């Protein structure tokens, strides 16, 4: 068993209206020293795969096909063996 | 015209599309569930507005991998006419049947208002009944209608007349004021405004009717051509 931790974020070139709104709200709180705000999605999957390489390949495909919109978003992930589990 | 109106959990404009197609325009329309695996017997596929699968993950993302979408892909590849409205547009981009994507409106408001649009291309199956350069008024109702694609994609869309509807006043931050596009082949349309909500004067306007009569004309022509 492996655990995959995935982060999906907007590409820096894409204006994220949600992040902009949060940035402005932080300014209203007096936190006017915030240079950038990034909002993203976080996923955790546990999966059965024969090897860590196979798990990596599968997670990458899942990100491309569903979890991220590669047109506007980028993703990064880590895959680690689950403690106490065998592959 | 025999239109399949897809219905996903959370679709809410499917009955409006059936009404506009059948009762107003005089074609045939049938609701087809998201679990269907074939679209044989239909010559148009309509993907309605709403909040398919609760807009979970991203608008259109879950619907884009629903069982019926494999059939939609085959239908579009064979040249069948596919029209996605509002959430239907979001689903078509998520499925890769149209380029780009729809993100949150820049002002973060859900916008619901009649909107003035320029019909930019009348040589499509969806707009052949409009006069060139016409301005029409259709309602919009969306929180994520802000069309985005990279500069190269936008240049391609513009160069090939794929921008079919353009906002007169941009309500959501869409690049190039884009309200509706087709694929390169011209048989797949996605648009954020709702033509099916503007087919009877009782409901405030009939400017949307042209989309349905255009499809009627295009399917008739296609039927003759195939004989």
Automatic annotation (TrEMBL), chain A:
Pathway the protein contributes to: Purine metabolism; IMP biosynthesis via de novo pathway; 5-amino-1-(5-phospho-D-ribosyl)imidazole from N(2)-formyl-N(1)-(5-phospho-D-ribosyl)glycinamide: step 1/2
Subcellular location: Cytoplasm
Signal peptide: none
InterPro entries assigned to the protein according to its UniProt record, in alphabetical order: PurS, PurS-like_sf
Chemical reaction(s) catalysed: N(2)-formyl-N(1)-(5-phospho-beta-D-ribosyl)glycinamide + L-glutamine + ATP + H2O = 2-formamido-N(1)-(5-O-phospho-beta-D-ribosyl)acetamidine + L-glutamate + ADP + phosphate + H(+)
Biological process annotations from GO: 'de novo' IMP biosynthetic process
A single Gene Ontology CC term: cytoplasm
Family: Belongs to the PurS family.
PANTHER family xref list: PHOSPHORIBOSYLFORMYLGLYCINAMIDINE SYNTHASE SUBUNIT PURS
Protein name: Phosphoribosylformylglycinamidine synthase subunit PurS
Organism: Lacticaseibacillus pantheris DSM 15945 = JCM 12539 = NBRC 106106
From TrEMBL, chain B:
UniProt xrefs under Gene3D superfamilies: 3.40.50.880
Gene Ontology molecular-function annotations: ATP binding; glutaminase activity; phosphoribosylformylglycinamidine synthase activity
Residues the record marks as active site: 86 (nucleophile), 194, 196
SUPFAM superfamilies reported for this sequence: Class I glutamine amidotransferase-like
Pfam families xref list: GATase_5 (PF13507)
Biological pathway: Purine metabolism; IMP biosynthesis via de novo pathway; 5-amino-1-(5-phospho-D-ribosyl)imidazole from N(2)-formyl-N(1)-(5-phospho-D-ribosyl)glycinamide: step 1/2
GO cellular component, one term: cytoplasm
Role this protein plays: Part of the phosphoribosylformylglycinamidine synthase complex involved in the purines biosynthetic pathway. Catalyzes the ATP-dependent conversion of formylglycinamide ribonucleotide (FGAR) and glutamine to yield formylglycinamidine ribonucleotide (FGAM) and glutamate. The FGAM synthase complex is composed of three subunits. PurQ produces an ammonia molecule by converting glutamine to glutamate. PurL transfers the ammonia molecule to FGAR to form FGAM in an ATP-dependent manner.
Protein name according to UniProt: Phosphoribosylformylglycinamidine synthase subunit PurQ
Species, as recorded: Lacticaseibacillus pantheris DSM 15945 = JCM 12539 = NBRC 106106
């Amino acid at each position: 068993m492996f655990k995959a931790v995935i982060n999906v974020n907007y590409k820096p070139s894409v204006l994220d209206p949600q992040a902009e709104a949060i940035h402005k709200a932080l300014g209203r709180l007096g936190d006017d020293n915030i240079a950038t705000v990034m909002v993203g999605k976080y996923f955790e999957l546990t999966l059965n795969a024969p090897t860590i390489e196979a798990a990596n390949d599968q997670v990458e495909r899942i990100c491309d096909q569903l979890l991220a919109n590669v047109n506007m978003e980028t993703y990064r992930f880590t895959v680690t063996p689950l403690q106490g589990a065998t592959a | 015209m025999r239109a399949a109106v897809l219905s996903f959990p959370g679709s809410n404009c499917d009955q409006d599309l059936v009404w506009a197609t059948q009762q107003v325009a005089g074609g045939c329309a049938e609701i087809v569930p998201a679990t269907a695996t074939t679209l044989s017997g239909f010559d148009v596929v309509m993907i309605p507005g709403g909040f398919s699968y609760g807009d979970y993950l991203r608008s259109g993302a879950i619907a884009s991998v629903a069982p019926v979408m494999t059939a939609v892909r085959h239908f579009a590849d064979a040249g069948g006419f596919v029209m996605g409205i509002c959430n239907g547009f979001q689903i078509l981009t998520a499925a890769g049947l149209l380029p780009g994507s729809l993100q949150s409106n820049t002002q973060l408001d859900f916008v619901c208002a009649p909107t003035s649009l320029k019909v930019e291309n009348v040589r499509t199956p969806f707009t052949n009944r409009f006069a060139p350069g016409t301005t029409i008024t259709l309602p919009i109702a969306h929180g994520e209608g802000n069309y985005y694609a990279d500069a190269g994609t936008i240049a391609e869309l513009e160069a090939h007349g794929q921008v079919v509807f353009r906002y007169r006043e941009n309500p959501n931050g869409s690049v190039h004021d884009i309200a509706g596009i087709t694929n390169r082949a011209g048989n797949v349309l996605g648009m954020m405004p709702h033509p099916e909500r503007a087919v009877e004067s009782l409901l405030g306007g009939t400017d949307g009717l042209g989309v349905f009569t255009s499809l009627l004309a295009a399917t008739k022509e296609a039927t003759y051509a195939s004989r």
